[in-house]
Design goal:
This protein is mainly beta. The protein has one helix at about 60-65, and strands spanning about 5, 10, 20-25, 35-40, 45-50, 55-60, 70-75, 80-85, 90-100, 105-110, 110-115. The protein has one helix and eleven strands.
Length: about 120
């Protein structure tokens, strides 16, 4: 059974950093585009960053690209999101996604809560 599982969320003070991790299983990890999305209360889910099977990165909002960095390790079947200079507006549930659009494969994790507050 294919699944992705996130970890690393928590409470952090403004200006702090967190590193989220996502491990995939049950699918050919290296063939998939791996992404992080987030959803804040009352808002739609938005793309944070993606990295495709060739290592090409795509960022979501411009306000994120200088603070958030996505990386993948296919040997460990993991994707990370390094988040720096966190602000209260970054508070959200962060979701990991694995997608192979050509074949319609699309897997979501349960999400991990990130709260930025003093």
């Amino acid at each position: 059974q294919a699944q992705v599982v996130e970890s690393g969320g928590g409470l952090v003070q403004p200006g702090g950093s967190l590193r989220l991790s996502c491990i995939g299983s049950g699918f050919t990890f290296g063939r998939f585009t791996m992404s992080w999305y987030r959803q804040a209360p009352g808002k739609e889910r938005e793309l944070v960053a993606s990295v495709d099977s060739a290592g090409r990165r795509t960022n979501g909002a411009d306000s994120l690209k200088d603070r958030f960095t996505i990386s993948r390790d296919d040997a460990k079947r993991t994707v990370h999101l390094q988040m720096n200079s966190l602000q209260p507006e970054d508070t959200a549930v962060y979701y990991c996604n694995a997608r192979w659009s050509q074949y319609g494969y699309d897997y979501w994790g349960q999400g991990t809560q990130v709260t930025v507050s003093s």
